[in-house]
Every structure is written in C-alpha cells, then in structure tokens.
Write a structure and sequence with these properties.
Strand content: 15-25%
CATH superfamily of one domain: inner membrane protein cigr
CATH topology of one domain: Nuclear Transport Factor 2, Chain: A
Largest sheet: 4 strands, antiparallel
Number of strands: 4
CATH class of one domain: Alpha Beta
Radius of gyration: 20 Å
Structural class: alpha+beta
Number of helices: 3
Strand order of the largest sheet: 1-2-3-4
Length: 115
C-alpha cells in the first residue's frame, strides 16, 4: 500500500511544481497590459523613468522602425513604440498595430550615455 501511495504522489507533486515557472514569469513582467493614452509623449518631450522601465526593448528591424542612433533605444510602452536618448528625451513615437505581441524582456534602464 505504501508503494502505491508513493507512485500516486509523484505525478501530483510534478503537476503542482509545474505551475511555479508560470507564476514567476507573470511577476517578472512589469507591464500590466492596461494601456493609457500618453498624449504628452511627443518628439522633444521627456519620458518618465517609471514608464521607460515598464517598456520592452524591441528590435527595430523586426518592427520596421528606423535604425536608432548610437545611444538611442526603441521600447514598446503602452502599445506605442518610443525612441529615446540616454537622457529620456523622446526622439519619435509610433503607434503599434500589434501591441499584444511583446518581445522578450531586457534590462530596464535608459540607454547608456556616451562617455
């Protein structure tokens, strides 16, 4: 009987532990997919560090965006592609047609300033 209990407990334990990575992934992603209109995000303006940190770094080629200058970076934030320099100054803003398709998370700091 003890042997049967062990055999039955192994699949139950495996199923219980298989959900842990999914929970960890949800907690790691800062963007909660509740988009807000950011009418203040315009060329020449600045972006708050909290907004920048929520964004996902994107590959400009994959999304057919202009190649960023050195020290500039594209991010997907609240359904918009935002190009900023190292000081958080907005260079360009583009609306996304597929805002639910998000690339892999990358470090969440502004691009490094050129020394």
């Amino acid at each position: 009987m003890h042997k049967v209990t062990r055999i039955l407990m192994l699949p139950v334990l495996a199923i219980a532990l298989s959900g842990i990575p999914a929970i960890a992934q949800d907690q790691d992603h800062h963007d909660n997919h509740t988009y807000a209109a950011h009418n203040d995000w315009k060329k020449g303006g600045t972006i708050h560090q909290e907004d920048w940190n929520r964004g996902d770094k994107v590959d400009y080629k994959q999304y057919h965006l202009a190649k960023p200058a050195e020290g500039h970076e594209w991010r997907m934030i609240d359904g918009q592609y935002v190009l900023c320099d190292a000081n958080g100054r907005i260079i360009a803003v583009r609306r996304s047609l597929t805002s639910d398709l998000r690339p892999r998370r990358c470090p969440t700091s502004l691009p490094n300033k050129k020394q």
